[in-house]
């Protein structure tokens, strides 16, 4: 982003601030669900994010080559589907658990193709974390919400793979700005069908702008800047803290209290994610998860 260079934070604090910003944005989103629903909130967030990024980055769309379009369009569609499914999960289960379950996606990408027997430990830890919050464990978690979170995690995995391909043909800032234009396509029909846009007021629009800034514009700016100087492995380890940040944000901002078993689930997946990052040969940066 043309403005990102003005952010003078060191890399590590930039990543941590990005994590806090994303979780604050998720709390704003959850407050909008009763009025706009998950589809309306996602459409508002992505649509406003796309507008802001277009103004900041000013991409020259007419100059993109066919190979760049072929890369960025599916990347954007995966981004939109991921965010929509995550918000569908967030409407039904606590923030900390939604992020924790969604993190299985990037963890799977990090472990894909691994030939190390030691990595079985991380798979087992992640599986134990999911088992601790699964409906059959008596956790009281909405099974549909859990399913949405798992589906969002699968989309996050696809998003990471497609993001790597897109980054090979487009600079990161340009890829995000253009990809966000297509991210709205998977969710906009649901947002329109819900009729939620008819209830928009200046107050809700302002909250939507804050949501776009905290959930997309600011985190992407901070993360892209951090990745210029921070090793990918270090970045991925820091991002592994996101489920903890989500659980704490849910508690402080939304009054969502997790049980001991649910905290153990969060800890299991955080340790699995950090451990996989440390032991795999090529960790994948998990940018823009929610």
| Broad structural category | mainly alpha
Nearest-integer average pLDDT: 86
Strand content: under 5%
Number of domains: 1
Number of helical runs?
Answer: 12
Q: Termini separation (Å)?
A: 20 Å
Largest sheet: none
Secondary-structure element pattern, one letter each = HHHHHHHHHHHH
Total count of strands: 0
- Outline type: globular
Compute the gyration radius: what is it? Answer: 18 Å
Which regions have little confidence, pLDDT < 50, spanning 5+ residues? 1-7
Helix content: over 70%
Pfam family, one: EamA
Family: Belongs to the EamA transporter family.
InterPro entries: AA-Vitamin_Transporters, EamA_dom, EmrE-like
Keywords: Membrane, Transmembrane, Transmembrane helix
Describe it.
- Helices cover 74% and strands 0% of the residues.
- By secondary structure, the protein is an all-alpha fold.
- The chain has one domain (4-279).
């Amino acid at each position: 982003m043309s403005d990102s260079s003005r952010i003078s934070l060191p890399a590590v604090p930039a990543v941590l601030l990005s994590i806090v910003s994303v979780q604050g944005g998720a709390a704003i989103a959850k407050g909008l669900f009763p009025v706009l629903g998950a589809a309306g909130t996602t459409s508002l967030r992505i649509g406003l994010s796309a507008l802001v990024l277009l103004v900041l980055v000013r991409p020259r769309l007419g100059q993109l080559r066919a190979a760049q379009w072929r890369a960025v369009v599916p990347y954007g569609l995966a981004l939109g589907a991921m965010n929509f499914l995550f918000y569908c999960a967030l409407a039904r289960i606590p923030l900390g658990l939604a992020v924790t379950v969604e993190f299985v996606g990037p963890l799977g990408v990090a472990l894909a193709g691994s030939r190390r027997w030691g990595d079985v430990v991380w798979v087992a830890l992640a599986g134990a974390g999911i088992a601790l919050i699964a409906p059959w464990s008596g956790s009281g978690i909405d099974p549909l919400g859990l399913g949405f979170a798992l589906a969002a995690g699968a989309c996050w995995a696809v998003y990471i793979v497609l993001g790597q391909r897109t980054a090979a043909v487009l600079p990161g800032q340009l890829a995000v700005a253009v990809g966000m234009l297509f991210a709205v396509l998977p969710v906009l029909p649901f947002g329109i069908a819900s009729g939620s846009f008819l209830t928009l007021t200046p107050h809700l629009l302002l909250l939507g702008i804050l949501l776009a800034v905290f959930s997309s514009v600011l985190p992407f700016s901070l993360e892209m800047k951090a990745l210029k100087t921070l090793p990918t492995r270090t970045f991925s380890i820091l991002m592994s803290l996101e489920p903890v940040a989500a659980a704490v944000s849910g508690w402080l901002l939304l009054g969502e209290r997790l049980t001991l078993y649910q905290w153990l689930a969060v800890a299991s997946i955080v340790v699995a994610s950090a451990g996989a990052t440390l032991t795999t040969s090529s960790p994948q940066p998990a940018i823009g998860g929610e």
